[in-house]
Amino acid sequence: MSAIVKEFTKGLWSEIPPFRLVLGLCPILAVTTTMENGLGMGLSATFVLVCSNMLISALRNIIPNEVRVACYVVVIATFVVCVEMITKAYFFSLSESLGLFIPLIVVNCIILGRAEAFARKNGVIASFADGLGMGLGFTLSLTVIGAIREIFGAGKLELLFGDLVFINEPFNFLQQAPGAFVVLGLMLAFMNILGRSAN
Amino acid sequence: MGNYLRMVIVLSVITLFSGLALGGLNELTYERAQNNILKFKKIPAVATIYEVIEGKLTTEKRSLLEEELLSEKKFVDVGEEEPVLMFVIKKENKPYAVTFERFGQGFGGALGVMVGYELDSGKLVGIGITTLAETPGVGTRVTETGFTQQFQRMPANAIFKVKKDGGHIDAIAGATVSSRAVATAVAAAKTFYNQHQDTIATALNR
């Protein structure tokens, strides 16, 4: 049991994807202009990651080694298209604001990375815990970066406070891609300081 | 040999299941997704064309108009595979313009453009972009007013090609393919309207 908990919690702190593994930066830079987008993207990726991790782990003894990556890509792409169809039918505004970045989850390196590094060597339950932990870590990071960029870049936080304006002349730079790099860099530095003082 | 066979079988079976699952899910969500596209993409595009005629609307009036358009959508059979969805824009309670959607090939697949024509003169009123899968921040800029408004009230003899191809459309820098897709869709709409003008007029009870 404690092993499962460990697999789950490592994704939330010691191996949190964007800050520790520094993987999956494309969606982080592109879609985190608002907290809502960050959360939506994170949850979509989490769904794909958990499902693909479990299925790949369940099939790990059947899939021949030589074609494993092709099989993983088919499995991952299937779940991504599922997410795309579901958001288009039930969360249309989210699918509009995330646009092409939902199909691009297929090539998110965290997902293929976890399939290759974890799910193909471990059982279904451990893979579920790993996928959920990594996914929630990813979601958390995207939401925080999105919230910071929205508060300081657009002056509001629509998801929590509606049209309430915090800052009248926001720092627009943070809404653009270079601003995303700056926020990510500051977050990385902050995480490193925290990590060092914890040791 | 046995090993090769196993690879082929495993990959084929996985792909087969994937296809079945996606086909099933598509069946379940297709109608809802199409409704969303109608409500949040096509109707607002028609409302944009309406604004070319009547001037900018307030948010309230716009949503009233959108409801009205939704309830008065028409399917006109012009002898194509499926009837074409059309919307009528009224001026002083009389049908004034008709809008319908045509497609061009963009960078990321089909790009939909709603095109409006004046019923009396057959003149192009304006366009509104409906669905697209272009590169965010590059190709998606064809939805900006700066690009779409050049189509408003364009003369009948205008050539709907980007300037690079010898036409009259100012393409967006860095998004030639997407701009070309819009121009193609409008050119297709022109051909379509010229060809079916009478059928459309009859179908709209004029």
| Class from secondary-structure proportions of chain A | mainly alpha
**What is the overall shape of chain A?**
globular
Rg of chain B over CA atoms, rounded to whole Å, is 20 Å
Structural class of chain B: alpha+beta
Q: How is the quaternary structure best described?
A: heterodimer
Helix content of chain B: 40-55%
Q: How confident is the prediction overall: mean pLDDT of chain B?
A: 90
The biggest beta sheet of chain A is recorded as: none
> β content of chain A, as a range?
under 5%
Query: Level of helix content of chain A?
Result: over 70%
Report on this model:
The complex is a heterodimer of chains A (199) and B (206). By secondary structure, chain A is mainly alpha-helical. Chain A has a domain at 2-9 and 24-151. Chain A is 72% helix and 0% strand. Chain A has 10 helices and no strands. In chain A, helix 4 (35-58) crosses helix 5 (68-90) and helix 5 (68-90) packs across helix 7 (109-119). The two termini of chain A are 26 Å apart. Chain B has a 5-stranded antiparallel beta sheet. In chain B, strand 4 (109-118) and strand 5 (124-129) form a beta hairpin. The longest helix of chain B has 53 residues, at 2-54. The radius of gyration of chain B is 20 Å and the shape is globular. Chains A and B meet through helix 5 and helix 6 of A and helix 1 of B.
